[in-house]
Amino acid sequence: MRLYKAKYPKACHCLEKDKGVLLTFYDFPAEHWIHIRSTNAIESTFATVRHRTRQTKGCGSRVATLAMGFKLAREAEKRWRRINGYKLIEKVISGVKFKDGVEQLEEAA
Question: How confident is residue 107, by pLDDT bands cut at 50, 70 and 90?
């Protein structure tokens, strides 16, 4: 950080201020990191919906547009792949702690 602080003070301040949030993905299983750092699945799904709704040039009513968007999203969902380490999701939800992507076993007192 010292190397860039003189040249990019605002950027360095922003990184220092938000360091905890930026590195939160280390508190999840390593198998999940690729999914956490990427928004591609969301972006590609909405790109499909946006493309189709734009091509129809006005779907009529608001309800018809929402219904078409819903159906397009449901179709896109069929091509999604399973998350890496999907069996670890239950542990994450139940509050198991991970440090640097590795499960932390509770020590007996």
Answer: low
Domain boundaries, the chain: 25-103
Contacts of 102 (CB under 8 A, 6+ apart): 30
Q: pTM of the predicted model, to two decimals? A: 0.55
pLDDT digits (tens, 9 = 90+) for 65-76: 888 888 888 888
CB atoms within 10 A of CB 29: 20
Residue with tokens 């946006």: 50
